[in-house]
Design brief:
- With 232 residues, this protein is mostly beta strands.
- It has a single domain, classed as Porin, CATH 2.40.160.
- Helix content is 11%, strand content 59%.
- It has 2 helices and 12 strands, in the order H-E-H-E-E-E-E-E-E-E-E-E-E-E.
- An 8-stranded antiparallel β-barrel has the order 1-2-3-4-5-6-7-12.
- The longest helix has 17 residues.
Length: 232
């Protein structure tokens, strides 16, 4: 996790150094103007209405001109009660960079595209009954140390509601998922990703997610919003 964060931070820093231009906004445009913290509203609502899933997620964002360095962290517990009892629980995080495609918006609204590296560390177990010649047998299986990794291509839209309060959507394309640490038990649910298989059979390498966030902005300085360039 530290090496991933360092690589992304250095990439942003080097990009900033390469973009200093005194004829436009000057180097100050790369000085962060805010820290934004947020909570995933859909996960909070889902945890309140479902007895089989509990999930919480928060995020921190720092801006560099029209780019945002984003870190997201959450916890999730899943349960299935069918002809068996299945449970999975663990923590997940995402780290990446977003780009605001409308940096000239005077209202402070954001339409962003971004890339994330995501990872989930979790455990799961299953309990089921089956009949033998000697009677009913209860079988239990467990994976104690699972890790799932994937990449995300994200699209976000958020709007300022009050001075420091922002709300918005996030659509996630979750890609190239892989799992390590599985034994005889195959994963059903991956915290932060979703179902591992389609209809319990075909493995899902890619999927789409949808989130709704509530953000609070902590200003660090006044950010200059330039006029929109006039097309020739």
């Amino acid at each position: 996790m530290r090496s991933t964060f360092s690589i992304i931070f250095l990439a942003v820093f080097q990009l900033a150094l390469g973009q200093f231009d005194s004829t436009t906004w000057g180097p100050k445009k790369w000085v962060p103007s805010h820290v934004r913290i947020g909570a995933n509203g859909l996960r909070l609502i889902g945890s309140g209405v479902s007895e089989f899933k509990t999930s919480y997620e928060g995020m921190v964002e720092i801006d560099f001109h029209k780019y945002f360095l984003v870190f997201e962290y959450g916890h999730e517990r899943n349960a299935r009660r069918e002809s068996f009892e299945y449970n999975s629980k663990g923590d997940f995080f995402r780290i990446g960079i977003d780009q605001n495609t409308i940096p000239y918006n005077k209202s402070g609204d954001v339409l962003s595209i971004g890339l994330r590296y995501a990872q989930s560390s979790y455990t799961d177990n299953i309990t089921f009954e089956h009949s033998t010649l000697s009677g009913t047998v209860i079988t239990q299986m467990e994976n104690a140390n699972l890790t799932a990794r994937w990449m995300e291509l994200d699209l976000g839209l958020r709007a300022k509601v009050l001075k420091n309060l922002t709300m918005g959507y996030q659509i996630r394309g979750k890609l190239f998922k892989s799992i390590s640490g599985e034994g005889q038990l195959e994963t059903f649910d991956i915290p932060g990703f979703g179902r591992h298989k389609k209809n319990g059979r075909e493995i899902k390498r890619n999927t789409v997610g949808f989130d709704y966030y509530i953000y609070w902005t902590i200003p660090l300085r006044q950010k200059y919003i330039p006029p929109k360039p006039v097309e020739p």
